[in-house]
């Protein structure tokens, strides 16, 4: 299993899963309702991000780059909202 995560096709699969889960979290965060109704949506986004990093740990060489990318993408949501 660990060797699969480090192989070319296995690493690409984990990166694809990571990207899809982060994109899902971005979509949830962009459509947050106001007030307490956002709590369940925030939990869903948190779960998607957690699962994304679980998938990313199978490719340790890219973990730092994935973390940096995820932080920038998520922070970008807040900055776009302030500009709008």
Mean pLDDT: 84
Rg from alpha-carbon coordinates: 14 Å
**How far is it from the N-terminal to the C-terminal residue, by CA?**
45 Å
Morphology call: elongated
- Category by helix and strand content: mainly alpha
Q: Quick one: how many beta strands?
A: 0
How much helix is in the residues?
A: over 70%
Main sheet summary: none
Total count of helical runs of at least 4 residues: 4
| Number of domain units | 1
Oligomer: single chain
- SSE ordering: HHHH
Uncertain runs: 1-6
Strand content range: under 5%
Topology:
Layout: H1 2-6, H2 8-30, H3 38-56, H4 63-83
Tags for this entry?
84 residues, mainly alpha, 81% helix
Descriptive notes:
- The protein has one domain (2-83).
- It is 81% helix and 0% strand.
- It has helices at 2-6, 8-30, 38-56, 63-83.
- Residues 1-6 have low confidence and may be disordered.
Kindly summarize this structure in a few lines.
This protein is mostly helical and 84 residues long.
């Amino acid at each position: 299993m660990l060797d699969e995560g480090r192989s070319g096709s296995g690493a690409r699969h984990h990166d694809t899963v990571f990207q899809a889960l982060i994109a899902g979290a971005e979509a949830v965060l962009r459509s947050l309702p106001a007030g307490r109704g956002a709590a369940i949506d925030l939990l869903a986004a948190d779960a998607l991000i957690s699962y994304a990093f679980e998938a990313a740990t199978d490719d340790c060489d890219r973990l730092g780059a994935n973390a940096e990318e995820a932080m920038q993408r998520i922070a970008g949501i807040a900055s776009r909202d302030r500009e709008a």
